[in-house]
Structures are given as structure tokens and as C-alpha cells.
Design a protein that fits this description.
Layout: E1 2-9, E2 12-19, E3 29-32, E4 36-42, H1 48-55, H2 61-70, E5 78-84, E6 89-93, E7 102-106, E8 109-114, H3 120-128, H4 135-148, E9 158-164, E10 172-178, H5 184-194
Antiparallel strand pairs: 1-2, 1-8, 2-9, 3-4, 4-5, 5-6, 7-8, 9-10
Helix pairs in contact: 1-2, 3-4, 4-5
């Protein structure tokens, strides 16, 4: 269904997401400067994004995820990644989330996906994100690498990138979406390079 990366570099948090569904950027990525980043995917509960962002203001990533999921009766169908502003991570992949599914967490980084062509997709995301470049480039490199490993089992049809940083006055440094395309990651890079 979807593959994503959440990445913290210095004082910025970035999220990249690709899906076989349309308009993935409208429901999966959530982030706030000084707080953290969230991806809510699988059979997406869009309420989890803002709920977890609010919880992160007073709780760790693990605590915020646990509290949010405790009130979600459909949690077994969810895949949720949370990265707080200190770089700590928490991930939940429910037992009813579509196969193939996988998650990888490192300090300041989460790579995860479900209904994947291959379990190599999240591994490729994480490895490519370590290539030099700014946060936007790292995210694009990761998404391109995930796509090359097969991406979404249905084919990639939409993509988005969200980067938050110090508010001046708005914390969204980058917020771009490709709601439908046969080549959503290529289109995402084209838009990013126009910024």
C-alpha cells in the first residue's frame, strides 16, 4: 500500500512517502517543528497523525504511539511510525496490515512499508538516505531506491515530501505532493528542484 521514511537531520524532520493509492500526501505524513514526525499508513486512520503530534508535546515517541493506539479499535490494520524531536523512534505494524510488510528503526530514522513488492524496499530506503546531500535530497534518494526495489506491489501512483524546520513564521520548509502519476517520484523530484 505505502512505503515511507521519516528522517531527522540536525534541527529538521523530513518525511517521504509513496503509495499505489492516489493523494497519499493528504493523509499519511504529519510533522511539527520541535515536536516530531508521524506516518500513519496501512488501512490509514488519519486521526492518528494529529493525535500523536499533540501527544508528543508531553510524551516520548513510544508513549505517544501506545496511548494513541489504545483508543483505535482498528489498530491491527495500521502501520504507524513516530520519530520525536530527540530522534527517538516508535513503530507499530498491526497483524492485519497487508503483506509484504517491514519496518526498520535507527536513531533519527524510520523506514517502513506494507503491501510491498519486496522486503528490500525499506532496506533500500534506509541505505540510500545515508548518501550525502541535504534533507530533501536524502529523502528523494531514499524514495528512488525504494522504487527501484519494486516499491508498492500495485505500482507507485502518488508521492509526497514534508520537511519541517524552525518557524519563520511557518514551520513547513517543504510540503509538496504528486497526487497521481505513472512516475510520481520523478515528478516529486522535478517539483523539489523548482523550489
Amino acid at each position: 500500500m505505502t512505503y515511507s521514511i521519516i528522517l531527522k537531520v540536525e534541527d529538521k524532520i523530513g518525511i517521504g512517502v509513496v503509495s499505489g493509492s492516489i493523494a497519499v500526501g493528504s493523509r499519511v505524513p504529519w510533522a511539527q517543528y520541535g515536536v516530531g514526525g508521524v506516518v500513519t499508513q496501512g488501512y490509514t486512520n488519519v486521526n492518528l497523525g494529529p493525535i500523536i503530534i499533540e501527544l508528543l508535546k508531553n510524551h516520548s515517541a513510544i508513549e505517544a504511539l501506545k496511548i494513541a493506539l489504545s483508543n483505535d479499535t482498528g489498530r491491527d490494520m495500521r502501520q504507524v511510525g513516530v520519530l520525536d524531536f530527540s530522534g527517538e523512534t516508535a513503530v507499530f505494524t498491526g497483524s492485519m496490515t497487508p503483506l509484504k510488510r517491514m519496518q526498520i528503526t535507527e536513531k533519527g530514522k524510520i523506514c517502513l512499508g506494507n503491501l510491498l513488492s519486496s522486503e528490500e524496499v525499506p532496506r533500500a530506503l534506509c541505505e540510500a538516505a545515508d548518501i550525502s546531500g541535504n534533507l530533501g535530497e536524502k529523502i528523494l534518494n531514499a524514495l528512488e531506491a525504494g522504487h527501484q526495489k519494486g516499491g508498492d506491489a500495485r505500482g507507485d501512483r502518488s508521492a509526497a515530501m514534508l520537511i519541517v524546520g524552525k518557524p519563520e513564521p511557518y514551520d513547513r520548509i517543504v510540503d509538496i505532493r504528486v497526487d497521481y502519476s505513472q512516475e510520481p517520484i520523478r515528478k516529486l523530484r522535478e517539483i523539489y528542484e523548482m523550489l
